[in-house]
Amino acid sequence: MLTAAEQKKPTLWQRARHLFAVARHEPANLIGLVLAIFFAYLILAPVLSILVDSFIVQSGDEARTHQDEGSFTLYYIVRTLYSRISEILLWQPLYNTLAIAAGTVVFSMSIGVVLAWLVNRTNMAGRAWFATALIVPFMLPTWTFALAWTTIFKNRTVGGQPGWLESLGITTSNSVAYGYFPIVFILVLHYTPLVILIVGNALRRLDTQMEDSARVLGAPSRTIAFSIVLPLIRPALMSAALLIFADCIGEFAVPYILGLPVRYDTLATGLYRALDTRQNGVAAVIAAVIMIIGVITLLIDVRMMKEARRFVTVGGKGNMDRLRKLGRMRLPASGFVGAFVLIGVVLPLLTLFLSTIMILPGRFTLENFTFDYWIGSNLDTVALSKGILLTPEFWQAAWNTIVIVGSSSMISGVLGLLVGYAVLRCSFKGVGSFLRQITFLPYLVPGIAFAAAFLSLFAVARGPIPALYGTPFILIIALVAEKMPFASRSGIAAMTQLGKEPEEAARIAGANWFSRMGKIVIPIQAGPLATGILLPFISGIKGVSLFIILAIPSTDVLTTYSLRLLDYNYDQAANAVVLMIALIAWLGTVLIQKISGTGLAQGLEN
Amino acid sequence: MPTITLTNLTKCYDGNTEPSVNQVSLTVEDGEFMCLLGPSGCGKTTILRMIAGIEHSTSGEIAVDNLVVDSVHQSCFIPPEQRRIGLVFQNYALWPHMTVERNVDFGLRLQKVPAQERKERCLDVMGKLRILEYADRYPSQLSGGQQQRVALARMLAVNPGVLLLDEPLSNLDATLRLEMRAELRRLHQTFGTTIIFVSHDQWEAMTLANTIAVMNKGQLQQIGTPDEIYAEPSNRFVAEFIGNPKINLIKLKESNDKPINVASHILARQSQAESRLAEVCAIRPEEIILTDNATSHTLPMTIENIMPTGGSWVIELSFGEDRLFHSTQSRPKWREGDQINANLPTPSLHFFDHDGNRLALTDNDKELDNLLLSSALPSHKYANQKHTNQPYAKQA
């Protein structure tokens, strides 16, 4: 059957045509290509555009730079990095940002490790209950704490309703009320649960036989802790630290609320201020600096992961629930954990709630309490004549939130699954790794810089794309892009776990691509897909930085609505909206746990 | 009915310089029950996956019933969903979100078989595989053996002409293995399907297959019936790979300087020129004959070790530094440390040259040689004789 010619090695042309014949039957190739182009435009283009913006004379800056709009200039670089005001524009905010991030990492790590150990490895009283309660601060938006903080500690430095302590006659100093101390304090509260989750998981996965072996050899507990356990969970510690560091660099809402009154700027608020004052070129430089920090963090992370892979151990019989007896320290330990829950959960939420039902802050008398700010009508305030729950704007904002955040989460969840599919199935290795990397890129770019990038790219009509600013679409696509790192990672993880075989078996059975997706892949992946949609939804509801730059009043969402209420000094109403957001976020989390049955920990670790 | 022909089939994975499957040519006749046997990583599963169409070839050709389904030269590739070949995966790959019945009738639904007929065919195949009572269960609620029967039923329901099985018995425990082995034999007879399966386990291959293709490092070593492969290994790799306990190897070349050892004993009895070319001599453990009486054909040896293996015994013999293993079905009457006389009958000796290839038997044994040849050596099975001549050095 084989001719003599065919005995020879196939030519390059024959091989290429054969590869094409094979690839033709693999739709993942087409999907991969389309996604690659899509993300190049959605993610790469905004990032590149903001980098280019820092070298291009921006509209309105012709007089200052003595150059035409659009020509090449080093003006912004010089102005931000070397001029007389660069101290204010960049260096001080950079120092503040790094100080906040470092402080948060150090404190949340030290507290978090202790708490993780207490919850996972000791017989502390009320372990099971604390295991859940300790995670709550992470589900609440950071600025919930910031608002609670101002409700209590606000002083005369800024106008509006006074803080509770102020009205009780105690004047708080600026350093307690605003700036570095409260920002770090709040971020520590917020990120400690993350440490507990990641380190706790590592502790649980640790094979107790390794500790037992050391014990059999006669090692005392201290030696076991420092030479066995700690080195083994070091990768988890490092990844938690870097995750928190990267998040803190991009944190916007907390410094916005607590730093601005005393002109305590971070890079994120500096960027916002630059955009707000139409210094787009300077904003681009600041955004670039934030991205560089992100890239450095990621490089460190990659390096550490490589190192960590050296001692990935396969768990043996797993944990035999061996708990350290605390003895007399059992109750004090619970007291310590309880104090964290009190400060991190109970006090902020209670404060916020009380603030929404008090007419005058800090006056704890019965006639001062009212539910008017929730459900009242005919109030004598200028703009808000009804309680929040009766105000159409609130429901409009809530609806906008659900539509915008919901649809973007849905899109990013599906795209994430498709990315996972394309990455694992695509015949061309390059496309797969390009997709993997580009969908991870937004992780390096904090939301505020990303929003700035989107603004710079989509504010005006470009080619076939009309000007999107002012429409919900810019918010949706910006949110999709921002959520892609999580979505694609969980998509890739889910597809890896699924493996190729169920689909191959369907091919053998004669199923075409649509049958395979519709009857095999998507039904099996329903759980991960639901989680992949709900998790971005929750974090999207809490998010501030994208909205504050890209939203306009007609596309108001709950976060921007509450911040605007705050600006107008309707503190009670603003706090009520914040509580509603926290409620939605918490309900969403419960829903995820119901659907996936796994809990937040695994989802976050992806 | 389908005949599968592989011609110079080669597969080279990206980034690997060594091909995983190297110039394999073989024909699987209609209704044959063939095993691809080899150590792990020898490319046997890759061949199976290429036949199914899940992998594509790097060069060469696959034809099913003279229809080319994958050929680089003809730039032709038919995807698995159009080949109508059944493949049962090693770990079954059942769809976890479907019941047993839905798993089984999935292929029929795709073929738009009317509901009534579908139901009948499903019940029929599930009945034959004795999984009818689990029809409404999910795969996770089944044991390994049941899962495997579901995986088989899923493929048999669409009645493919060819059934490919990847390590069909490896995931089962001892009892189930025997049961499943009988089941597969029965299926082969009932359905008359051509079956190709992959195994690294010689027991599995010997007991199931009509024909065995031994592979190593991506290359075909020998094709033949289980008996042929055992009795007349075409090279040193096959000799060593097949047989438990392992065949005894006696190096002939290095031993010339030593005065008396097993090798010199063997050489002394070989007069023909061929034996001078031989580098290694081999003998199956059960072919060694132990006697109390010394003759000119025997070698005095010491019993070092007697290992009962349940129904048979393995005896370790020593002569100087040489060690030989003997196996027997009858209870040995000697004890460890006893002196014994071992006869290594010339007809039982296999000789291999420097490259590990089998050397033809000497004149003395022509008779036996003829006997073996006439018994069963179908001509097509040596179609790829050239590729059985692989240098031994690489295989060590």
UniProtKB/TrEMBL annotation, chain A:
<feature type="transmembrane region" description="Helical">
    <location>
        <begin position="526"/>
        <end position="552"/>
    </location>
</feature>
<keyword id="KW-1133">Transmembrane helix</keyword>
<feature type="transmembrane region" description="Helical">
    <location>
        <begin position="128"/>
        <end position="149"/>
    </location>
</feature>
<protein>
    <submittedName>
        <fullName>Iron(III) transport system permease protein</fullName>
    </submittedName>
</protein>
<dbReference type="Pfam" id="PF00528">
    <property type="entry name" value="BPD_transp_1"/>
</dbReference>
<feature type="transmembrane region" description="Helical">
    <location>
        <begin position="440"/>
        <end position="461"/>
    </location>
</feature>
<feature type="transmembrane region" description="Helical">
    <location>
        <begin position="224"/>
        <end position="246"/>
    </location>
</feature>
<feature type="transmembrane region" description="Helical">
    <location>
        <begin position="467"/>
        <end position="486"/>
    </location>
</feature>
<keyword id="KW-0472">Membrane</keyword>
<feature type="transmembrane region" description="Helical">
    <location>
        <begin position="331"/>
        <end position="360"/>
    </location>
</feature>
<feature type="transmembrane region" description="Helical">
    <location>
        <begin position="98"/>
        <end position="119"/>
    </location>
</feature>
<keyword id="KW-0812">Transmembrane</keyword>
<feature type="transmembrane region" description="Helical">
    <location>
        <begin position="281"/>
        <end position="300"/>
    </location>
</feature>
<feature type="transmembrane region" description="Helical">
    <location>
        <begin position="180"/>
        <end position="203"/>
    </location>
</feature>
<dbReference type="GO" id="GO:0005886">
    <property type="term" value="C:plasma membrane"/>
</dbReference>
<dbReference type="InterPro" id="IPR000515">
    <property type="entry name" value="MetI-like"/>
</dbReference>
<keyword id="KW-0997">Cell inner membrane</keyword>
<dbReference type="GO" id="GO:0055085">
    <property type="term" value="P:transmembrane transport"/>
</dbReference>
<feature type="domain" description="ABC transmembrane type-1">
    <location>
        <begin position="398"/>
        <end position="592"/>
    </location>
</feature>
<feature type="domain" description="ABC transmembrane type-1">
    <location>
        <begin position="94"/>
        <end position="301"/>
    </location>
</feature>
<feature type="transmembrane region" description="Helical">
    <location>
        <begin position="572"/>
        <end position="592"/>
    </location>
</feature>
<comment type="similarity">
    <text>Belongs to the binding-protein-dependent transport system permease family.</text>
</comment>
TrEMBL record, chain B:
<keyword id="KW-0067">ATP-binding</keyword>
<dbReference type="Pfam" id="PF00005">
    <property type="entry name" value="ABC_tran"/>
</dbReference>
<dbReference type="InterPro" id="IPR013611">
    <property type="entry name" value="Transp-assoc_OB_typ2"/>
</dbReference>
<dbReference type="Pfam" id="PF08402">
    <property type="entry name" value="TOBE_2"/>
</dbReference>
<keyword id="KW-0547">Nucleotide-binding</keyword>
<keyword id="KW-1278">Translocase</keyword>
<dbReference type="InterPro" id="IPR027417">
    <property type="entry name" value="P-loop_NTPase"/>
</dbReference>
<dbReference type="InterPro" id="IPR012340">
    <property type="entry name" value="NA-bd_OB-fold"/>
</dbReference>
<protein>
    <submittedName>
        <fullName>Carbohydrate ABC transporter ATP-binding protein (CUT1 family)</fullName>
    </submittedName>
</protein>
<dbReference type="GO" id="GO:0005524">
    <property type="term" value="F:ATP binding"/>
</dbReference>
<dbReference type="InterPro" id="IPR008995">
    <property type="entry name" value="Mo/tungstate-bd_C_term_dom"/>
</dbReference>
<dbReference type="InterPro" id="IPR017871">
    <property type="entry name" value="ABC_transporter-like_CS"/>
</dbReference>
<dbReference type="InterPro" id="IPR003439">
    <property type="entry name" value="ABC_transporter-like_ATP-bd"/>
</dbReference>
<keyword id="KW-0813">Transport</keyword>
<keyword id="KW-0472">Membrane</keyword>
<dbReference type="InterPro" id="IPR003593">
    <property type="entry name" value="AAA+_ATPase"/>
</dbReference>
<dbReference type="GO" id="GO:0140359">
    <property type="term" value="F:ABC-type transporter activity"/>
</dbReference>
<keyword id="KW-1003">Cell membrane</keyword>
<dbReference type="GO" id="GO:0055052">
    <property type="term" value="C:ATP-binding cassette (ABC) transporter complex, substrate-binding subunit-containing"/>
</dbReference>
<feature type="domain" description="ABC transporter">
    <location>
        <begin position="4"/>
        <end position="242"/>
    </location>
</feature>
<dbReference type="InterPro" id="IPR047641">
    <property type="entry name" value="ABC_transpr_MalK/UgpC-like"/>
</dbReference>
<dbReference type="GO" id="GO:0016887">
    <property type="term" value="F:ATP hydrolysis activity"/>
</dbReference>
